[in-house]
Amino acid sequence: MLTRFAGIALALVWMASQGAARKNDSTAPAETRGENESVVITATLYAKPEAVKEVVGSDLGGHYIVVAIEVTPRFGKEVAVNRDDFVLKTDKDGEKSGPFAPSQIAGRGAMIVRQTGGAGATGMHDNDGPIWGGMPGTMGQPRRVGGDGVGSAGAPEGAEAKTRTGSSEKEDPMLAVLKQKELPETKTDKPVSGLLYFPMEKQKAKDLELRYAATDDKITMRFRLEKK
Predict the structure, then answer these.
(1) For the chain, which domains are there?
(2) pLDDT in tens, 76-86
(3) Which of 23, 164, 181, 218 is most buried as measured by Cβ atoms within 10 A of its Cβ?
(4) d(Cα 130, Cα 112) in Å, to the nearest integer?
């Protein structure tokens, strides 16, 4: 009888471990790789806020997807590495965006949207979601991420956009962290790596496509779950 109970207990433990493994797989980073005549690009995607927090120490309000990039020049060629050579596109709604500079995320020039009342407003509050599109490093129509979802970034009725300015304002400590971890913009014939910060939220890895367009020989990459 004891042997039978021990067998049942072991089976239950095994089933629990398999369930935990499946749960961990759902939050595992996704990877992709592509190459052309000049470079090899490898990328790891951190789409969930908890994954972003593990990488940079903050979930960035849940408004950003972080991609770890490694650029490896081929055949000893020197290549120019630039943030704006990369674009992240989602199949979810066709939206696409270039990465933000750290100063656009945590600097004094970062944008804040304040609800001021009026039509459609339910009260006054700050929406710290980033304004994206129509700004450096973005493509497509201006959009606003955060708050009640994605909306117009221009002058939505009952809201006003402000830029953080002023020497009296304390510098966000995240700015230094984001700068330190960012993919450096440089010319090199050696591998270089770092992070890119894309203003997107609530995306699945299977829906995302990374594009690299530094030359006419463009690279398009789809993400896949990392195999354990």
Answers:
(1) 2-106+174-225 (2.60.40), 111-163 (no CATH)
(2) 999 999 999 99
(3) 181
(4) 7
